[in-house]
Amino acid sequence: MRLCCTKETSASPDTWTPKNPLWGHCAAVSLVAQNMFGGTLLRVSLTDTPFKAMRSHYFNKLPDGTVIDFTKEQFGKLYPSGLKTKTRTCGSILEHESTRNRYKKLALRFAYEMTQNVLLLHPLYGACFEAALDSGCQKLWVGSVLVHNGVVVSSGNNHPVEELAHVCKPKCIRFNIQSRTESMIGACGHAEEYAMWEAIQKGIPLSECDMYVAMVGTDGLPRFRSDPSVGYTCLRCATAMRLAGIKNVYIDIVDHWEKISIKDALQSALQYALGEKKL
User: Global pTM?
Assistant: First the structure.
């Protein structure tokens, strides 16, 4: 994590230094750690400490009850102990746009350090990855972007349609369904659908667009497809892209983007839907 934290991702960039890389990173680091390990987020007020300018501090309580502060060393010998903790949700922390943006940048850098995969350095992969972080799906996060004349014009992620959300409470119904089959069963609209609808609302001609799609595990790490033979896997979205006139869909294969025609995407997606192919 020390390799990932920079002035850009610190909540206190004016006082951040390379010698103390974790400075101002408690919220973003705690969110990344929660993705990895689960558990809950804890907050303490720093009002009555030497660090009152920072106002608050976040750390983690793991599922087994262990309390761990991944940015403890930023305080040196003046670590503020014995303070009253309060539980916080990731949603309440991410309500702050600046925190959300710092968290996304840090999560992407962390994923790169963990995988050393050069595809994470590609701007379009970064855009898909950051979109996926907003998903909230219990099973898998998917992020997508539409590109028109070389420019990203919209993005989307898989997240619940309000009227259907109840079917995934408390546990996502998709855990009991074979992946890539029965794509209409579930609470979520798909990343590709949301990206297309956003572009439509902006008046972007979909027939002039390419779709890029990336999958991210709920641990915040990429789920790269193993090789080109995997193909595109969602018949629901392949059909929607065919009707919309999308030119091509690009999927992440190991360390590069693989271009797939919509015709080929329909054929491979149909095989998954029929159970003839499995990931």
Answer: 0.95
Grouping H, G, I as helix, E, B as strand and the rest as coil, residue 130 is helix
109: how many CB neighbours lie within 10 A of its CB? 20
- Give the Cβ contact number of residue 221 at 10 Å: 15
- 147 contacts 141 by C-beta, under 8 angstroms: no
What phi, psi does 94 have (nearest 5°)? -80, 0
- In the chain, residues under CATH classification 3.40.140.10 are 118-273
For 163, residues 6+ apart whose C-beta sits below 8 A from its C-beta are none
Contacts of 145 (CB under 8 A, 6+ apart): 124, 127, 128, 131, 152, 154, 155, 156, 195, 211, 212
d(Cα 212, Cα 127) in Å, to the nearest integer? Answer: 9
The pair of three-digit structure tokens given for residue 175, joined into one six-digit string = 């855990």
Q: Are 141 and 218 in contact (CB under 8 A)?
A: yes
Query: Which residues are CB-neighbours of 229 under 8 A, at least 6 positions away?
Result: none
CA–CA separation, 156 vs 144, rounded Å?
Answer: 5
Q: Report how far residue 244's alpha carbon sits from residue 196's, in angstroms, rounded to the nearest whole number.
A: 8
Give the strand pairing for 209-216 and 141-148: antiparallel
pLDDT tens by residue, 158-202: 999 999 999 999 999 999 999 999 999 999 999 999 999 999 999
Asked if CATH classification 3.40.140.10 holds for the domain at 118-273, the reply, yes or no, is yes
Q: Cβ atoms within 10 A of the Cβ of 64, count? A: 8
CB 191 within 8 A of CB 144: yes
Instruction: Answer whether 255's CB lies under 8 Å from 217's CB.
Output: no
**What's 220-236 look like in SS3?**
CCECCECCHHHCCCCHH
Separation CA 246–CA 210 (nearest Å): 6
